[in-house]
Amino acid sequence: MSSRQSGKEPKATDGEMVTITLKPIGPSRPRRLQLCSPIEVHDLRDLVAAELQLPVEHLKLVLHGKVLSIPNGNDAVISLHEGDTLIIAVAPSRPPKHIRDPYGDEDDDLKFHIPETASRVTQKVFFFLRDKVRIPDVILMAIFTISLKMWAIIIMWFILAPIAYEWHIGPLYILGTGFCIILFNLGQRRQGDLSAYSIFNDGFRELPGTLNADRLDRDIRAGQF
Known about the structure:
single chain, alpha+beta, Ubiquitin-like (UB roll), five-stranded mixed sheet, 36% helix, elongated
């Protein structure tokens, strides 16, 4: 099956078209893939994943005994020749935490890792901040997990804070911020679900097993204490 049959075209470059053999580790049969050489490792991984229908984040490519990797998010380019064989391996997922070594993975769990499916620009920024600037993992996690919309709100909050201070409404600004955080983080119940607070339920209906003063009074009067 070629890359045209898989629905994904090789990226156009100034190189030549070559046909390589994809040899997955396991019972799968080898396949042939036509692509343009030279090619970036990032694009090669995407082509192979689409051709073999494998998860790209767990994909390992081996060419001439060497694992093809993307060093520090750079656009690594390789040259392939007609008839080259590319060995494909799928790295197994990490075992659940309850069966891991409780001591071996402790340090690794505390480190922030960016997904391999992230864009190359994001990977470059991440590796630059981690390796060159040496920003702590906690700050990296905040940078790469908070959305741009949330960052815009945070920056706007800090811009408006001095204005609120100059107008002597700093306490109101803080209180308003707290109320906004509460209101915008309220969940929505599905039809038929009951709230843990009976005041929000129709007819002030309580959850089964709720312990309150009325329940205690009924139990005492019924002689259950």
